[in-house]
């Protein structure tokens, strides 16, 4: 088990605010050699980088990169800059994500479906592919890849069809990658797939936690994810009701599960009042 990220280079997407910023703060606090911040919001990124640089007191290189990971071509260009200007990351946290909370027929393909799939599913693959070969070829150094998915990728929910599809794709790829690395004896590179329920951030403003599944605080989630990453834990679902629900969903006949999830636990009504974060 890796105890801290001291001396490691950590890359975080969606790092200018919210949970991405919390991951960055944790990396700086533990004495990472470099914290590489990716975000499309240049102004917020500059503020976060300045705060982290002051907090690190010169112990950690804070390296901000403005990049929109929905632009898959920009990922390769920015990755090359990272390799040249900072060095290869030892840890990649694919944290950035977007959500569009609408019925499927209300989605616009160009403004909703395509960017949701690009940011949530394709971008983590593209980013990981840029840095994975060096991780694999350095067996003397522990490496970590964290892919932040969602419980929506495990359990269907109205008004989340495209988001759920993107996160289901992420989960399938992430855990398959883990297995491939184990099978081919690259055990020093560990993949953690994270599937949380609703978190009280602006991203899910208006969403209502189902029965026994209250909205979680960002600090709580980041702490759990951080510990799972350091331990190389393959899969993290939270809270515990997410894991229970997947088991019950697999056991019950579908009509009965729909009744339990919809009428008893309120899962299928959890997005009725969703507003989300204002679009840029």
TrEMBL record:
SUPFAM superfamilies recorded: NAD(P)-binding Rossmann-fold domains
Domain of life the protein comes from: Bacteria
Keywords: Oxidoreductase
InterPro entries according to UniProt: NAD(P)-bd_dom_sf, Sc_DH/Rdtase_CS, SDR_fam
Pfam family, one: adh_short
Transmembrane segments: none
Signal sequence segment: none
Keyword Oxidoreductase included in the entry's annotation: yes
Entry GO MF terms: oxidoreductase activity, acting on the CH-OH group of donors, NAD or NADP as acceptor
Protein's UniProt keywords contain Transmembrane helix: no
Family under the similarity heading: Belongs to the short-chain dehydrogenases/reductases (SDR) family.
Protein name: SDR family NAD(P)-dependent oxidoreductase
Species per Swiss-Prot/TrEMBL record: Cryobacterium shii
């Amino acid at each position: 088990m890796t105890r801290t990220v001291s001396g490691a280079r950590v890359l975080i997407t969606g790092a200018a605010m919210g949970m991405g910023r919390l991951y960055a703060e944790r990396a700086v606090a533990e004495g990472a050699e470099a914290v590489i911040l990716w975000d499309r919001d240049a102004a917020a990124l500059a503020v976060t980088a300045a705060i982290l640089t002051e907090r690190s007191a010169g112990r950690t290189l804070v390296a901000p990169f403005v990049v929109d990971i929905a632009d898959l071509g920009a990922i390769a260009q920015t990755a090359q800059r990272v390799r040249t200007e900072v060095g290869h990351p030892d840890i990649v946290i694919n944290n950035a994500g977007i959500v569009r909370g609408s019925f499927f027929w209300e989605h616009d393909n160009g403004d909703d479906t395509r960017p949701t799939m690009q940011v949530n599913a394709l971008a983590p693959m593209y980013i990981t592919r840029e840095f994975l070969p060096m991780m694999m070829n350095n067996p003397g150094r522990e490496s970590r890849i964290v892919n932040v998915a969602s419980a929506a990728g495990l359990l269907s929910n109205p008004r989340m069809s495209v988001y759920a599809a993107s996160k289901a794709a992420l989960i399938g790829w992430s855990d398959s990658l883990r297995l491939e690395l184990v099978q081919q004896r690259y055990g020093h590179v560990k993949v953690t797939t994270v599937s949380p329920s609703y978190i009280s951030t602006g991203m899910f403003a208006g969403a209502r936690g189902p029965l026994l599944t209250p909205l979680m605080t960002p600090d709580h989630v980041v702490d759990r994810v951080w510990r799972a990453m350091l331990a190389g834990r393959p899969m993290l679902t939270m809270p515990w009701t997410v894991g229970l629900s997947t088991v019950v969903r697999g056991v019950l006949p579908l009509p009965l599960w729909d009744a339990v999830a919809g009428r008893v636990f309120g899962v299928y009504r959890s997005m009725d009042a969703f507003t989300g974060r204002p679009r840029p």
